[in-house]
Amino acid sequence: NGSRSFVFPGIRSRVVFGAGTISQVGVEMKRLECRKALILTTPQQREDGEALAARIGGSGAVVFSGATMHTPVDVTRKALEVYESADADCVISLGGGSSIGLGKAIALRTGVDQIAVPTTYAGSEMTDILGETQNGEKTTRRDPAILPETVIYDVDFTMTLPKSMTVSSGMNSIAHAAEALYASDRNPILSMMAADAIKSLAAALPAVAADPADRNGRAEALYGAWLSGAVLGGTSMALHHKLCHVLGGSFDTPHAETHAILLPHTVGFNAAAVDELLKPISDALDGTTPGKALHRFAIRLEAPTKLKELGLSEADLDRAAEIAVKNPYFNPRPFDQAEIRALLRDAWIGREPP
Length: 354
Ligand code: NAD
What we know:
Blueprint: E1 14-18, H1 25-31, E2 37-40, H2 46-56, E3 61-64, H3 73-85, E4 90-95, H4 97-110, E5 113-118, E6 129-134, E7 137-142, E8 150-154, H5 163-181, H6 188-210, H7 215-234, H8 239-251, H9 255-274, H10 279-284, H11 290-301, H12 314-324, H13 337-349
Parallel strand pairs: 1-8, 2-3, 2-4, 4-5, 5-8
Antiparallel strand pairs: 6-7
Helix pairs in contact: 5-6, 5-7, 5-9, 6-7, 8-9, 8-12, 9-11, 9-13, 12-13
Bound molecules: nicotinamide-adenine-dinucleotide.
Residues 42, 44-45, 69-70, 95-99, 101, 119-120, 122-124, 127, 129-131, 157-158, 160-161, 165, 169, 255-256 line the site of nicotinamide-adenine-dinucleotide (NAD).
């Protein structure tokens, strides 16, 4: 809108990016004056955690491999016991948003330094946001203690990410950049980063989907994921993230897939109000409207496109729309319950958005 008025809060984490960068883990531990690390993984990535412990060597690391989706508080308690009995003084979260979420939950309670080694494109490593679940309820908070001090992006760890997770997680990443473009607290630096994130992911994801072993494509996708994570951490999200939170929190839909399915619809809806701000999406994709471009991109990637496929019923859509309008929050286009219900119904059947 031409008015030069903004706040740039800075980007506070140290980032080491490249292929083979895990070799820097000892150096990075030293920078943080860390003597012994608690390595956090999911059960599926336990072996990678053990290999990292062996690389650190001696009595410099122990592994806890119980991380799981949505950061349940009882898992955090178990990990805290291991952290204390091992006498660790930093955590290394190796994995996607689930492992990184556990590291954040421990840091929130102890103030311990975190090194994150992300292996998906979810972006959690660059944010001071933590969502935790207890008794079936998900609460989200922001706190400076939650932000990891150091992030080691090692392309090598992303080579094993399965194709389906690669494309869904890639769409999840684009979602952060898309909402940063119209965020109420956007600023010129993060807007540039968001546009570059979309450009990188738009180029890289089709290459990696065609050949998951494409190292250049993997590096470009991870670069985009870093940028997207940074803009997620630096701005406030709107309708898209809110709807994903409602579906994930109340209907237990999988994180990355939910983002992938909803994104064309939420962007299509908001484009009616902020078409010009969303131009980087059209520019990076096929030049049509931002919503259509994302929808066609998802189909091309063979990403999931229908909420129906996640097991939601039409009655669930009614309840989701009701929850989504309960608490007001910023969105560039005002909406009511009926409009959200219609948007969800389009996403349920996978209809091409406007
Ligand atoms: P995830 O961490 O749950 O990973 C999904 C599965 O893929 C896991 O089994 C994991 O072990 C496996 N995996 C991860 N990387 C792999 C690789 N390179 N090779 C093989 N397998 C691999 O999934 P996610 O989408 O990264 O994270 C989702 C969670 O993160 C949700 O709980 C979400 O709420 C949270 N999240 C939080 C933020 C934030 O800022 N707080 C941002 C994004 C996501």
